[in-house]
Amino acid sequence: MRHSVATLALLAGTALAGTAAAQTEISILRVAVNDEQEQYYEEIAQAFEAEHEGVDVNFEYIANEAYKSKLPTLLQSDARPDVFYSWGGETLRQQSEAGFLKDISDLLPDGFRETMPEAALNAYSVDGTLYGLPLYATEVVLWVNTNLTEEAGVDVDAIETWEDFLGAVQTLKDAGVTPIVAGGQDKWPLHFYWSYLALREGGPDVVTQAMGGEGDGFEAEAFIEAGREFQKLTEMEPFQDGFMGTTYETSSGMFADGAGAFYLMGDWDYLPMRERSTDGGLSDEELRIISFPTIADPVTEGGDGATLGGINGWAVSSTAEPEAVEFLAFMLNEENQRQAASQEIFIPVAKGTSDALQNPFYRQVAEHIEASSYHQIFLDQFLGASVGATVNDVSADLAQGAITPEDGAAQVQEAWDFR
Amino acid sequence: MATAETRRLTAPDRLRRSLSNGRVSAALILLPPALILFTLFVMLPLGESVWYSFFSWNGYGTPTDYVGLENYQRIAGHSVFHTAVGNTLKIVAISILLQMPLALLLALLIYRKTPTNAVFRLIFFVPYILAEVAAGLIWSFVFDGNYGVTASIAQSLGTESFFILADRDWAFVAVMTVIVWKYFGFHMMIYIAALQSVPEDLIEAARIEGAKRRQIVRYVQIPHIKPAIIVSAFFAIIGALQVFDIIIPLTNGGPSNQTHTIVTYLYTFGLTRLNIGFGSAVGVILFIAAITVAVFYQRFFMQRGQA
Q1: ipTM of the complex as predicted
Q2: Where in the sequence is the domain holding A205, given as residue range(s)?
Q3: Residue of B61, B254, B268 lying closest to A98 (CB–CB)
Q4: Looking at the domain assignment, is residue A150 inside a domain?
Q5: Are residues A258 and A384 in the same domain?
Q6: Any keyword Cell membrane (chain B) (predicted)?
Q7: Is the pTM higher than 0.90?
Q8: Which of A71, A86, B40, B254 could bond to A315 as cystine, CB 3.0-4.6 Å?
């Protein structure tokens, strides 16, 4: 297809006495973003086009859920994008196994690899082959509304272990404050609890070991224990009333409106939660972020320093021209990553660029990720669409007391066996 | 002469005759477009679905992992599928036991052609005109215990707000309420049209004989509109098998997969999770269910002369 376009363009060029040069078109597909971010990508595309004559970079955007369901079909058609947005994980593996991805290891400019942290590159490799590049990192943190914690007399600095956290929840309840806001209808906000608890209980390798079928897989003690600890929390009824009917968007606005003291959510919600609030939301002084609590006596040691979040980035499709990889490296160069950081668009992943961050919350998250012993990618992405959705289902069922921790672990294992 | 008579019965001759009277050419010209479209967009995808349903396939590349009937076994053993089938049956039951009598009652009240009745007819028919997704969204705001109508009601009553869509036991009741609200107008319209065709002199005669209003309804009007009732029940059952776009914005199948119908189950567990093989198997089951219902219903209720 691309060849015939090029030939056509060439023919047209000859016909017009050589006024037009052959065009290389690079198409990039991304999950929809706000105007400011579209502007950011547009400027990068223009800068690249200015340096490379005859190259045309096109960004296209599709809304989140639609993107996920359309991508498999698009990749199998002639209209497949050269570069597309990715969350890494099992989905990337499935795409590579189906032969839709390009090995870009040898196509990168010299020295580019060294600008990226090894862990972030690993997130875009399958069995050691690099199929894409990371764009930014996110972390799930516990947001705190300090007005409410102060009102109830909770010392946020004293919250270190899960027991401390449960104690704080009790204190808040006694003071008549809703302890936690959660968007249960979308389920994935609840899966953060289960994932973090599993990481803390089972250590950094708990998920990869289960995926490799070691021991009892997802039915290992750490996952069951994680379910038990989660239910210790949910039995206290810590969430706002009707939390299973609340979407992520609503919950985010509710937290900013002061409906609850804690809110477990990614750093990306810093600006959106204010936009969704009815009265402008919480000011920086009324907000704090703390790491997810640790477990005093875990099943396996070592999970205290692990973080949960995402390493979002780009995958390169098998039919992409070398120019597409060149553009990708350009888009992710130090300068552009710094630019994104100073505009507070995202937390850059390239080494040494996070000092361009001005916002104290983003800086803190960047420090967390840098200090992290292991950055676990969201389980609902990492385990692929099917198993990931099962983890979300199980988390929601556990939160409502509809299943036991043992059932939950067994359901995840079953989904993994039949993925 | 005799030879000519026998020759007229031979096959080539018959063919020539049907060619000359245009039947064959009509079939040759008119059949292919419909046949091609039907084959391309109905039969082929159907066959492909059956084929995919024997594979564990995530939609990437071509299916290679043949699993036989395992998809069907998994569906049969999946508790959420049982709930989905149960919910679909509940919708059938509520449609027949509540929605249709309600529609009939209203139709009997407003079937006569008067200006007031026209206004009521329009009011009752409006929910049906609304797009399903819009209706689902509107009702999700109504049921919202934080900011919605429910919240205001609870506030003015001075009670604690309630969250019906977040309640595992009650969420589907809310869904069924919306379905009844959405479709009763459609059934009502069918009944109104039928009631208007009941001969006025029959009703007059019954009245002269001393029949009361209830008796007229029971013995004159309902027997007369029986074909319409049978057709509307058929739509209700087939409609129940297809309910999808109301549930997605309202509950998205939650809380904890309690409010799925067969189609939202297919969508959630087949498409959004990219288990294309599994989803195809659900589709095949749904197709068989729909065909069975249609055939049996036609066979037992919609015999010649009845509808």
Answers
A1: 0.72
A2: 139-307+375-417
A3: B61
A4: yes
A5: yes
A6: yes
A7: no
A8: A86
